[in-house]
Amino acid sequence: MSFFSQLLQYVFTGVAVGAIYGMVALGFNIIYNATGIINLAQGEFVMLGGMVMISLTTGLKVPMILGFFISVGIVTLIGAVIERGAIHPLKNPSVMTLIIITVAASILLKGGAMFIWGKQTYTLPAFSSSTKPISFGEASLNPQTIWILGIMAASMIVLAIFFNFTMTGKAMRACAANKLAASLVGVNVKLMVLLSFALSAAIGAVAGIIITPVALMDYDRGTMLAIKGFATAVLGGLGSNIGAVIAGFIIGLMESLGAGFISSSYKDAIALLVLLFVLFIRPGGIMGTTGEEKFKK
Amino acid sequence: MNPLLRIEDLRKEFGGIVALEGVSFTVIPNIIKAIIGPNGAGKTTIFNIISGIYSPSKGKIWFKEERIDKLSSHLIAMRGISRTFQNVQIFNNMTVLENVMIGCHPWTRSGFFSCVFKTKGNYKEEKKIYSRAMELLEFVGLADKRSLFPSSLTFQQQRLIEIARALATNPELILLDEPAAGLNARETIKIAELIYRIKEEGISILLVEHDMDLVMDISQEIIVLNSGRVIAEGNPREVQNNEKVIATYLGEKEFVKDKKP
Amino acid sequence: MGKKNLYALAALTGFIVVLPLVIGNPYYLGIFIFWGIYSLITIGLSLLIGYTGQISLGHAAFFGIGAYTSGILSTRFGLSPWIGMIAAIFLAAGLAFVIGAPALKLKGHYLAMATLAFGEIIYIVFNQWISLTGGPSGFGGIPAFSIGNFSLESDFSYYYFVWGIVLFVFLASINLIHSRVGRALRSIHGSEVAARCMGVNTSGYKLKIFVFSGALGGLAGSLYVHFVTFVSPGTFSVMFSIVLLTMVAVGGMTNIWGAITGTAILTILPEYLRAFQDYDILIYGAVLLGIMIFLPEGLVLGVFNIMRKKIILREVEEEKLKLKKSR
User: Fold this and answer.
1) Angle CA(C187)–CA(C189)–CA(C194) in degrees, nearest 5?
2) Architecture of A10-117+140-283 per CATH?
3) What is the pTM of this model?
C-alpha cells in the first residue's frame, strides 16, 4: 500500500473514532453546563447504548431502527435514574463527593453490565445491508463511517434545535449561564439537572450504538471512553460543543495516525497524554488557578 | 514617617472590565485607616491584591520598602500582612483553637520530619503555638469555646475567630474586610473596641466597612473609592465635607447624618 | 497526640499482636497481611483526600510502580529485596513529585481526571513494555525478604514484619495530623485561599503530602510483590484505585482510623462473599454509592452517629412524656 493510501486509511479510521469522542465530549458538556458536574459515568452510557442495542437486535430480533430508539430510550432512563438516585438526594454536596458519586455510579453500571452480559465482547451488524467497503485507491472506507458521521451530524442538529428553539432547551441554557437568575424567572433548576443527565445519557447511547459495528463492545469500555471523551472536551474548551466536535476529530486522527505510524501498543495513551498536556500547560486558561474564579462567584 | 504600605498606580482588569484604576495611597504605622465606597467600587479587590490573591494588571506595592506585588499570598503573610474575609473563610474542619493555631504558621518552623517524630524542638514550638493561640482567644473573648467546631458558633463569633487567627500571624498590618457586616449595634460597638485594642498593640489596620458610624468613629484616615478610582482621601471630617463624596453618597442618609462637629 | 488516640493505638497494637495467635489459619493470615499492605496505601490516601482535600484516582499506579521496581530489581538484577524496597519507595515518590507538581495546581474534577489519566497511562506501560514487565502475563519467581539468614518467607513472620511497618507509619501519620504541618494540611481542605493568607504554602504542602502518599504506595507495592512472589498488571488497574478510594470512604475519609477499618472491612469481607467474586465491581459500586449518599462520615462513625441520634431522640420523647405526666 502506498504511503498516501495508508494515510487515507488512517484518516478514515480516525474520523470515525473521533466522531465518537466528540459525542462523548458533548455528553460531558451538557451536564457540565447545567450543573458544573463532570460526570465520570459518561463512558458507561456509551457502553450501555451498544450493549442494549446488541441484546435487542441480535437477541430479541427487534428491527434495527426500532431497536435504536428503544436502546436510546432505555439508556436515557438509566441516566435519569442515576440523577434521581445519586445526585438529587445530596444536599450541598462538595466537589469531592460529586466526583466519588459519579465514579461509584460508573463502576455500578459497569458491574451491572458485567452481571447481565458477562465478560464477552459483542458485535453488531453494520447499518447498511451492503457491507462492502467503498474503495478509494488502495484505501477503503467502511460504510459504517458514513453512518457514524451522518448520525452524529443529525444529533448535532437536533441538539442545536433543542437548545435554540425550544422553551426547555432555552431554560437549560439559562441554567448554564446563571442558576440563580434562571430560578428567579421560574426555571425549575432541579428538573433541568435531571434533563441534562437524561440528554447526555441519550447522546452517549447514540454514540455507543453507532460505534459498535466497527469497534465491538464489552462491559469494560466505559472508563477509557470517558477519559478520552473528557480529554476531547478539555481540548475543545469545556462547555463548547463546536470545540468538542473539532477536538474529537483531532484526537481521533492523532490516535489512528499515531497507532499506524508510530506504535499501536501505546495507542490508548495518546489521548491521555493530550489530556495531561492540555491540563498542565494551561490550567489557568481552563479553570483559573489563581483563585480569582472562585472569588468572583 | 516611613509608610508601612505604599501602593502606586494600581490597576486591575477582569476580562476587559476595569475594576481598579490609578489607585495610590499609603498606610503609616500604627493607624486605623478605612476604605469606603459604594458596592462594586473595588474595595475588596484592593485587599485581594495586597494579600496576593489577585495579581495587579499594573502598579506597584511596597511593604516596609520591599516590593510585594509579585509575591504569592503565603510569602506576603510571612512579611507581616494578615487579613480577614468578607464572607468568613474559616476552617470548619478544625476546632476553634486549631483555627487560631494555624495563624502561628508564619513564625514557626517545624517541618514534616520534626512533626512526624515529635522532636524536642517541635514539642517546644507546639507549646509556644498553643499559648499564643490561647492568649489571642482570651483577647477576643472566645477562650471557653476553644474545643468547639466553628460551625456551632454564631456569625459574630466566627468573625472573632478570623480576627484572632489573623493576629496570630504577628502582623504589622491587618486588613479587616467588613468586620461589622451583619452585626447588631451592641456587637458593632464590641468590634470597634476590639479594633482599638488591636491598634494599641502597635498594629496598623486597613479597614473596609459599610457602617459609616463605625468608620467615622474609629478611623484616623479614610479613602473613598468609586468605580475603581480614589475620589477623596483625608481625615473623617475632610472626607465628609468633600463634594465629590457627598455626590457619590447622595441620598444615602447614613452618610449625611449629623456627623459634622 | 491525645490520650484517646494513645489508648486506641495501644488497643490496636494489642489486637494486631494477638490476632494470628488466635486465628492460626494460614489462609486468614494471608488476608491479614493484605489488610496491612493495603492499609499503607489507604493511610496515605486518607491524609491526601480526607485531610488535605485533594483527590487521587490513580494511586494504584504508585502501588504498581513499587511492585514492579522491587520485583524487577530482585529478579532481573539479582539485587536484595531491601534495595528493591528502597528503590520502590524512591521511584514512586519521584514519580509522585513529577506528576503531582503540575497536577496539584488543578482543582476538583480536573485533578480527578488528571490522576485517572496518569493511572491509565502507567497501567498501559505495565502492559506494553513487555521486555521489562513481561507484559499482560507478568513474571514470577520474586524472592522473599530475609534478615541476615532469617527468611521472612513464612506468613507468620511476614505478618509481624508488615504490621510492624504499618503501625509505625500509622503512628507517624497520627503525629503528623496533630502538628503544625497537619494543621496546615487540614487548613487547605477548609479554605485554600484563607490558608495561603495565613502563610501556609499550600502548593508546597499539597505536593509534599502527595509525594508522601505516593511513597507509601511504593512501599506497599514492594511488600506486596515479595509476598505473592508474582506480578502482573491486572492488580494495578484503575479499578484498584477506586477500590482503594472505597476503602477510605467506607472507613470515613476525615478520620485516619477510617483508613485501617475501611481497609479491614473491604479486604476481609469479600472473602466471605466468595459467591459474588465475579461481581465484585457491582458490590464495590453499590457500597461506594451507598456510603457517599447515606453515610458520608463512613460506616463506623456514620452508624454510630445514627445510633446516637436515635438515643437522643428517644430521650427527648421520654422527657416530653414525663412533662406531660407531671402536668
Assistant:
1) 50
2) Orthogonal Bundle (1.10)
3) 0.91
